[in-house]
Design brief:
43% helix; 6 helices; 150 residues
Length: 150
């Protein structure tokens, strides 16, 4: 991929939309390209993580064994919790089709954060949105129905 393609992709993702161009160029320069075929496990639940991934092309299933939490597509992030800490992964990630990922390791990410609070704001917005989605799903599946009350 060309550097400009990476910059444009970063700009189009919500997490980096307010990041200055100079920071995007620096960030794009440290992204590692990873090409995977279908049904390849990117990481497993319990693996220690120190990086996040941005999906440039393809789909990735986030799951725990057979239970699917989400299917992520182009311009979406995965593993963003692991870039903030090095705790074990909370779920597994498996590609569903030919996929091109951009990997951002923890150390370069921290260096960019030092210079740009907008990146941190983007990460926090993404995490907040996902927590709200999980809360909504939990409430929808655990609220009693009228039949439950009879």
């Amino acid at each position: 991929m060309l550097l400009i393609e990476k910059v444009l992709m970063l700009r189009s993702s919500g997490i980096f939309s307010d990041t200055p161009e100079t920071e995007l160029i620096e960030l794009a320069g440290v992204l590692e390209e990873i090409h995977l075929g279908p049904q390849v496990k990117l990481f497993s639940k319990g693996d220690v993580g120190d990086s996040m991934y941005i999906i440039f092309k393809g789909q990735v299933k986030i799951h725990d064994e057979e239970h699917t939490f989400a299917v992520l597509e182009e311009n979406e992030l995965l593993g963003e919790l692991s870039i903030l800490d090095t705790e074990p992964r909370s779920a597994s990630a498996t590609t569903l089709e030919d996929t091109l990922l951009l990997k951002l390791a923890q150390e370069p990410f921290y260096e960019i954060l030092i210079n740009n609070a907008e990146v941190l704001k983007g990460i926090l917005k993404t995490l907040s949105r996902r927590l709200r989605q999980m809360d909504a799903r939990f409430v929808a599946t655990h609220l009693p129905t009228a039949l439950d009350l009879l």
